[in-house]
Specification:
single chain, 135 residues, mainly alpha, two-stranded antiparallel ribbon, 5 helices, 2 strands, globular
Length: 135
């Protein structure tokens, strides 16, 4: 189980690094910050996302006693629900505390940005597809 969690963390952090770079253009915070600060912010956020995905996987694993999440639809659904719920609350708090601001190009749904709302769910599922189908 430790090896699986390590793989999930590493792969999801890498996938999130790509996601962060791509959607950072939808934040005025990233567009206006000095370039020297940008890489550390993106890497830090990617690692944080990898940790959250690993934690949500571990929660579902503990509840369902199943390592291969893609073979258990209720487990995968719970992972997606946890990811979306966390992302929604985290984004609401971050916007309220002005940790970052959206550019006008950010699509908004339910008062939060669409790309940060979907990020953990989508990159988590992509991680599971890579780990459990490709390896």
């Amino acid at each position: 189980m430790t090896e699986t969690l390590l793989h999930i963390f590493l792969i999801s952090s890498l996938i999130n690094l790509v996601w962060e770079v791509l959607h950072s253009q939808l934040y005025t915070t990233c567009l206006e910050m000095p370039f020297k600060k940008y890489p550390s912010l993106i890497v830090k956020q990617s690692i944080k996302d990898g940790l959250w995905i690993s934690l949500f996987y571990l929660i579902t694993y503990s509840l369902f006693k199943n390592a291969e999440i893609l073979n258990n639809r209720p487990q995968l659904a719970l992972f997606i629900i946890l990811s979306l719920a966390f992302s929604f609350v985290d984004e609401k708090i971050s916007i309220k505390l002005k940790r970052w601001e959206y550019s006008k190009q950010m699509p908004i749904i339910f008062g939060v940005g669409l790309t940060p709302l979907l990020e953990l769910a989508v990159t988590g599922v992509l991680t599971f597809l890579y780990i459990f189908l490709a390896l």
